[in-house]
Amino acid sequence: MKLNSTGLMQKRKGGIPRKKVSSEAAFEQEVQKEEQKEEQQLEQKGEKEEQKEEQQLEQKGEKEEQKEEQQLEQKGEKEEQKEEQQLEQKGEKEEQKEEQQLEQKGEKKEQKEEQQLEQKGEKEEQKEEQQLEQKGEKEEQKEEQQLEQKGEKEEQKEEQQLEQKGEKEEQKEEQKEDQKGELRT
Fold first, then answer.
1. Per-residue pLDDT averaged across 26-41, rounded?
2. pTM for the whole structure
């Protein structure tokens, strides 16, 4: 509450002009009322300011909280994306590794089968060659035996023919001798 140089209240914001006050006591009461009113207004203003500041702080706090939540959410999403990417890359590597292992296993199996077939083929070939060789030897032995038997028969036949021829010659000679003897007598 401001007073002028004469100790009287200045007229401002609901201030009461001096002319309306009839006595000093009434003036004091008016001054007290004015002071109370100003204190009340200041108190209300202070409360409003306080409420306003609290509201601003609350809004600021909410914004900060939202910002932090947003940053945490973005960070979480980035971490999640990173983990997913790492898991995906790991999965791809595992898949490539398994494919490579299966391919190597398939190649080894194929090589083994080819080797087995080759060995089987060689054994079959050896067996056939052996069978053909044995068959050839048997055929040869059979032919030799047949030739030998044929030779023996030819030889026997020739011997028999020579023997028969000799006997005929001998009979013929004997007959000639007999005829000669008859002529002498």
1. 89
2. 0.34
The 3-class SS string of the chain reads CCECCCCCECCCCCCCCHHHCCCHHHHHHHHHHHHHHHHHHHHHHHHHHHHHHHHHHHHHHHHHHHHHHHHHHHHHHHHHHHHHHHHHHHHHHHHHHHHHHHHHHHHHHHHHHHHHHHHHHHHHHHHHHHHHHHHHHHHHHHHHHHHHHHHHHHHHHHHHHHHHHHHHHHHHHHHHHHHHHHHHC
Percent of the chain with pLDDT over 70: 87
Per-residue model confidence (pLDDT) at position 136? 95
